[in-house]
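Q: What does the assembly look like in three dimensions?
Context provided by user:
Components: two
Sequences:
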Amino acid sequence: MEVTATYRDRILELHLKGELDHHGARGLLTKLEREIEATLPAELVLDFSGVTFMDSAGIAVALRGWQRMRELGGCVKLYHVAPQPKKVLEAAGVGRMMTVQ
Amino acid sequence: MQRMENYVTLEFLSRSSNEGFARVAAAGFAAQLDPTLDELGDIKTAVSEAVTNAIVHGYPDQLGKIVMKLKLLENNTLEITVRDWGKGIEDIQQARQPLFTTGGEERSGMGFTIMESFMDRLTVKSTPGRGTTVTMRRRISARIKR
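A: Here is the predicted structure of the complete assembly.
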């Protein structure tokens, strides 16, 4: 999976593209943590508009982001989440912890 | 015992690149039941979890054989079996608990929970040192034919 990071006005935005499964997510957690460490943002945005499939590997990524941002006193927002990934996130109760749109 | 109308058996190596192949194959087989996009998404997600479990937990330190059987039973029911001959699960009840994982930080521990909530029925059989068989069933709703 392809990840593009942009940082502006204390908002770190990661654009995810491809299939977010165990195979596709390899290296994504490390990339996520590195970008957070480097920018120390107030808000983390995960842009799901390019995600064509997601399973529980995506839950691990969202929860890690949430954990790191909580330590920094910031928040996480998941944008442009398609119905299939949304259902997976809902099954894990992730919608109660962060904004999913 | 439900009558079987059709079946496909697939054997593949426990490489993570086969996760995508397995779920697309399952969706392709399920297509003959005329499922909705939502139902197809559920099937793909559940297959992805079962196959990933076999790859990550069945064969953590080696490559091994995975067999996926897709069956079409009467009553518009799809049965999916994913079998490995790997490490096996010591405590199935514990493994099925939400958030429990032995897979490290890249795993969420939600695999079985998702399989359970996305399918109608889930059975897990395992013998430590011998392997694991996961069987899932999902009835596809009949749609009004035009």
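Follow-up: The domain at 4-139 of chain B is CATH 3.30.565.10 (Heat Shock Protein 90).
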